[in-house]
Amino acid sequence: MPPTSHSENTSPHPLKYYRKLATLKGRLEAGTFVIEGERAVRQVVENRPDAVLEIVTIEDTPALYPRYPQRTVTEGQFRHITSSKTPQGVLAVVRLPLETYSDNLPEKAGRLLPDGPRVLFLEDIQDPGNVGTLIRTAAAFNFSGVILTEKSADPFSPKCVQSTAGSVLSLWLRRTKDCMGMVKELKEQGYFLLAADLAGKEDTTILTGRHKLILALGNEASGLTDEVLKMADYRLRLPTVREKAESLNVAACGAILMYLTSRK
């Protein structure tokens, strides 16, 4: 259960503690990260209430979530501790799922198997906005998890979390050096590896009703590496009009493909 409400400004943390959570090192040391904005905070409070540790708001803001310890700060202090260019006046300090950085897939029934049949694999996608949008889209289309390479943006960085609109804890995440080992392990369990590739084929019927799927998306500039493409069971290119637009943004491409995989 979440902690009971404390009186205002009883947080044991100095203001610089919240600033440190903007860095990966600071998040790992503290075991926490920050979710900003009322809508995103409400999302995590409703779906993962046990993960919320503290609410920080500017002065004169009503107690939005009285069951949690709440700290009030001045508007200037809030702007100092937030990463947002247009802060909304409320943020939550949330427990960081440290298993995100482990080399092991989630366990189920004593064996390594994700909770659901579809997994998103992000190889070296470096823009945190793209990573956050793809995580949000994966959650919306009921993917069970996301595997990220270490060169991909950290899913708990402020801009990435903001782009997920509070859905960052809605599915399991793994960001590790051994991400290729995880993909190979899933393939051994019967998962179909589909690679988004500009040089691939345009037959999107390969997606319909596909069970146990890994959808691989590559770097914004260079796409997927040869290693992933060689592992792929199928290389797919969306049938766009190249004369008008050579390619799609990776987040847009991923959204379309995830929608197609969700069709019965």
Number of H- or I-type helical stretches: 9
Task: Report the span from N to C terminus.
Answer: 38 Å
Rg result? 20 Å
Report strand %: 15-25%
Highest-level CATH class of the largest domain: Alpha Beta
Strand tally: 12
What class, by secondary structure content?
Answer: alpha/beta
Largest sheet: 6 strands, parallel
Main-sheet strand order equals: 9-8-7-11-10-12
Q: What's the CATH architecture of the largest domain?
A: 3-Layer(aba) Sandwich
Helix proportion? 25-40%
What is the ordering of alpha helices and beta strands?
HHEHEEHEEEEHEHEHEEHEH
Low-confidence stretches: 1-8
**Could you report the average pLDDT, rounded to the nearest whole number?**
88
The dominant shape is: elongated
Number of folding domains? Answer: 2
By CATH's scheme, which homologous superfamily of the largest domain applies?
SPOUT methyltransferase, trefoil knot domain
What is the fold-level CATH name, i.e. the topology of the largest domain? Answer: Alpha/beta knot
Defining key terms:
single chain, alpha/beta, 60s Ribosomal Protein L30, Chain: A, Alpha/beta knot, 2 domains, four-stranded mixed beta sheet, 9 helices, 22% strand
